[in-house]
């Protein structure tokens, strides 16, 4: 059985939907930001906290867990600057409790959701896993701290792990049953689509004076189902002993500016967006684009869905949002 911590959240719930096809799955989620309805009914669901030893003891003593996948983190850069304690408490301290409990029950396989924010402001066009990590906010630091803890646990206790550094997750499940649902929403694609649906008056573009071809920030958008599939490859590699300590980027390898994303949303939906230029948002690097060559070479994974497909599935979801 696979324990998915944070399996009711946006990315976790998409992973669970794929994973239940081949594995028994138990989800632990405190529903602070996740949705119970997002969890596939074939998974066992436990409402609880990853930092709560009693919840963890109950799960590890009751179920034969062979691997843990960890999605239960706070992930807003701006919030992490204002409330670092919240980020270090949950993303670091609670995760450490989870890892210690895994060691106690001799569960040695772990897949960790990390982030492009570990790179800070990279001085390369395309980021690969050898690019220096130098996070510029508490969110990125909290993730990098766990990456370092994992390496130490590997040396001391024989933990096997794969770290997946996500670039910009977006899109929704092809079934239309689950998709992105944050409150408040801060991410670009859902914000644009909400404006096109009329539930938002305008879209503010955060900065148009960056050193990019059109002055707006460039990001690498990756479909959430592609992300989920990468986790399944990583899990197979851990469970078959093919990998024991590895870090991989997950992106498309293509950068799109904020303006290009908005234009693509207009093209996919056939609607015209109401856009205004605004000040830069604190903590935003100008450009974050991944090389995912390493995971392609080693595990055969690559992103299969392009920006139009990402937006089309998200549009389907937002028009008929279930939660
Ligand atoms: N962005 C924007 N307006 C918005 C939301 C986001 O201009 O209302 C920009 C943001 O500054 C960044 C890009 O869109 O350059 C992607 O932001 P998002 O919050 O989706 O993801 P992040 O890159 O912060 O993880």
UniProtKB/TrEMBL annotation:
Pathway the protein takes part in: Carbohydrate metabolism; galactose metabolism
Catalytic activity annotation: UDP-alpha-D-glucose = UDP-alpha-D-galactose
Keyword terms, alphabetized: Carbohydrate metabolism, Galactose metabolism, Isomerase, NAD
Domain NAD-dependent epimerase/dehydratase, chain residue ranges per copy: 2-251
Gene Ontology MF annotations: UDP-glucose 4-epimerase activity
Cofactor: NAD(+)
This enzyme's EC code(s): 5.1.3.2
Record-linked InterPro entries: Epimerase_deHydtase, NAD(P)-bd_dom_sf, UDP_G4E
Isomerase found in the keyword field: yes
Subunit structure: Homodimer.
Family per record: Belongs to the NAD(P)-dependent epimerase/dehydratase family.
NCBIfam families xref list: galE
Protein name: UDP-glucose 4-epimerase
UniProt organism field: Bacillus xiapuensis
Name of the gene this protein is made from: galE
């Amino acid at each position: 059985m696979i324990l998915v911590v944070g399996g009711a959240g946006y990315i976790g719930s998409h992973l669970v939907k794929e994973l239940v096809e081949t594995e028994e799955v138990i989800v632990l989620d405190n529903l602070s930001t996740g949705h119970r309805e997002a969890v596939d009914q074939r998974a066992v669901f436990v409402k609880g906290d990853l930092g709560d030893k009693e919840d963890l003891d109950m799960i590890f003593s009751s179920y034969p867990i062979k691997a843990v996948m960890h999605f239960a983190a706070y992930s807003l850069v701006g919030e992490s600057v204002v409330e670092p304690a919240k980020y270090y408490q949950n993303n670091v301290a609670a995760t450490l409790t989870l890892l210690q409990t895994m060691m106690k029950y001799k569960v040695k396989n772990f897949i960790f959701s990390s982030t492009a924010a570990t790179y800070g402001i990279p001085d390369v066009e395309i980021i690969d896993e050898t690019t220096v990590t130098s996070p510029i906010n508490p969110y990125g630091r909290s993730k990098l701290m766990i990456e370092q803890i994992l390496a130490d646990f590997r040396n001391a206790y024989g933990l096997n792990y794969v770290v997946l550094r996500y670039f910009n997750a977006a899109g929704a499940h092809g079934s239309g049953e689950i998709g992105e649902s944050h409150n408040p929403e801060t991410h670009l694609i859902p914000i644009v689509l909400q404006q096109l649906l009329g539930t938002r008056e305008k879209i503010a573009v955060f900065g148009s004076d960056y050193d990019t071809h059109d002055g707006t920030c460039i990001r690498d958008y990756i479909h959430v189902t592609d992300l989920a599939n990468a986790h399944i490859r990583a899990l197979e590699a851990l469970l078959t002993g093919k990998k024991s300590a590895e870090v991989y980027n997950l992106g498309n390898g293509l950068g799109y500016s904020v303006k290009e994303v908005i234009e693509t949303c207009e093209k996919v939906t056939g609607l015209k967006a109401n856009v205004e230029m605004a000040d830069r948002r604190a903590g935003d690097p100008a450009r974050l684009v991944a090389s995912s060559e390493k995971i392609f070479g080693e595990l055969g994974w690559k992103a299969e869905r392009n920006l139009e497909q990402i937006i089309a599935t998200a549009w389907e979801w937002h028009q008929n949002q279930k939660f």
